[in-house]
Amino acid sequence: MLWEKALGSNVLDIDGNRYLDLTAGFGVAAVGHRHPAVVSAVKRQADRLLHGLGDVFAHPARLELSERLGRMVPLREPQVYFAASGADAVEIALKTGRLYSGRPGILAFTPAYHGTTLGALQGTSRPAFRSPFSEPLDELVHRLAHGAEPEEVRQLLDRQPDIGTCLVEPVIGREATRWPPRGWLAGLASACRAHDVVLAVDEIFTAFGRCGEWFVAGEAGIEPDLICCGKALGGGLPIAAVLGEKEIMAAWQTDGEARHTATFVAHPLGCAAALATLDVIEREGLIQRSRTMGIRFGHRVEPLKQHRGIVDVRGTAMLWGVELDSRERAVGLCRHLLERGVIALSGGATGAVLQIAPPLVITERQLDYAADSLVEAATGV
User: Fold this and answer.
1) SS (H, E, C) 105-145
2) Residue 332 belongs to what H/E stretch?
3) In sequence order, what are the beta bridge partners of 144?
4) Between the CA of residue 57 and those of 27, 53, 60, 63, 261, what are the distances in Å?
């Protein structure tokens, strides 16, 4: 299928077929594809400044976005380090932890997905992504199960004093669409604080309303040292950022060249799109709407739990996972949905989890059709 156009929650292919997108373009289109406010902001910015000079000279949209993000994030004295992509943000977070702590070791979890660039692979768990690139990374990474008992975390940190950074997803995204036990993030944060380990929370997929909050870390009641964000932030354009405590971000200060940069970092169009996206989320009440629509969807797909081959149905707000008993069954379910005009992706470490992450602007009628199609399609697999 070749996408030709997309608007709101709909996608049109080159043959004129219309589909309902339950992926939000990998979570990017939280405010919908081609939201008019985002498009207008990008056009206005393009008429003023199409490209700047990276991190050498700033531009007004970059400064405004920095201040806006700083007011939103659950940190005491936040500073912003912009990134070119989500994986780039993870790289920056890992470098920050190493610079500040002086220790190269990393605590990561299984399952996890943080990107596929060489540095981000230190956190990503799936062997298919890590091989054949893992040799220079393995000795640095100490891995536990996501949701491991707090005592197990503390014992590992006691045994491995080389660990300077902990990288964690507050909700497992691509690799499972699964939530940790209640209070687990708070216990992890406490253990990291007791061992002077920099806690980096990867909210690239979960922030900006996907899970019914601006940031999951804030809802969990923790104060991480670093937060990575991206995807939905740009409203369709590539932009990401690491938000960190001032004291920790000061580790980047140098009189020479920047230690991490990119040609298109904090790109003017990306910053303009991000500001418009944040406006839309606030103006249209998409955080609360995400929660409300999640409850509606949960009720609608309740019959799924009775279907053959369905292992679990879990979710909150506008992020849901339907776990099947095999990859083949999950792929089959995606195929049946596509025949009904619904786009969904299967993933997870074994490919057996169907992830539901539609735009937050999806209408009730569209959501009901998606849920009903899912229940009906499940009978055929």
Assistant:
1) EEEEEECCCCCCCCCHHHCCCCHHHHCCCCHHHHCCEEEEE
2) helix 327-339
3) 109
4) 31, 6, 10, 11, 13
Whole-prediction pTM: 0.95
Contacts of 56 (CB under 8 A, 6+ apart): none
Quick one: pLDDT at residue 132?
Answer: 73
Phi, psi at 277, each rounded to 5°: -60, -45
Q: In what order do the strands lie in the sheet with 342-343?
A: 3-7, 10-13, 18-21, 342-343
Digit-coded pLDDT (tens) for 191-233: 999 999 999 999 999 999 999 999 999 988 898 999 999 999 9
Instruction: Work out the percent of the chain whose per-residue pLDDT is above 70.
Output: 99
- CA–CA distance, 307 with 309 (Å, rounded to integer): 6
Contact 320, 210 (CB under 8 A): no
Question: Which tokens go with 2?
Answer: 């070749």
Please tell me the distance from the alpha carbon of residue 137 to that of residue 307, in angstroms, as a whole number.
Answer: 42
Mean pLDDT of the chain: 95
For the record, the structure tokens of 48 come out as 């003023």
